[in-house]
Each structure stands twice: as C-alpha cells, then as structure tokens.
Amino acid sequence: MSAEEAQPQPETIGLIEAAALLHIGREALRTLCERGEIPALSLNRKHWVLLRSDVLAYIGHTARQQAAARRRSCESSAPQIEASPARKTAGKGRPRREMPDLAPYEARAGLPTKDGRRGPRPEDSRNA
Length: 128
Known about the structure:
Largest sheet: 3 strands, antiparallel
Order of helices and strands: HEHHEEHHH
Strand order of the largest sheet: 1-3-2
C-alpha cells in the first residue's frame, strides 16, 4: 500500500477537484452548481465547496437517467425500423433507393426492353 492509499480522502472538495472527478471544465461545473443540479456551498463568487459523495451521487443518478432514456429510445425505435420495408439497408449507412424506370430511355435508344421489343433506333430517325 502506498502513502496516498493509506490517507483517507477528504469529504469536501473544491471546484477544480470536482471538475476533474466529473471530467468536465470548471465553468461547466460552476454552471451546474449555480443551477442547483449538484449540491454545493458557495463561499463567495469564486469559491465553491462540494461533498465528494454528492459529486459521485450526481454521476450515478445522471448515468442512470441517461441509460433509461437510451433504453426507451431503442425500444421505441426498433419496431419502426423493422416494419418499414423502404428503409432496409445493406448493413450500416443510408437506405437503398429504388432504381428508376429506364424503359422509356431504352426504347428511345433502340435497346431491348423487358418485354423483348426494340424501340426505334436513333439512326433510323436520321434517314427518314
């Protein structure tokens, strides 16, 4: 055991330590404190004191809320994706688009169409 592990961590922490614990900036944490989202004591306009347990409780509470929202989002969107045949994709990415009907162009160019007939060839119209 190292010397750091043997010493108990203080129950109160400042804004810088709490921001590091939350992995956010000081100003973002200050905003959370000012809105009352995290319990904190304002000693003056510059100094805030937070309980380490309150910061950890905020992380746990917010993480559970976000996980529940993601779960609801996945549950509500899953049937919609499966029920819509136009949204099928070949893996990830954009949905496939339907191919346009090229029969009028094929007929004009003299290419065989789906029924096997050929349209007039462009060189036929020049000789007429």
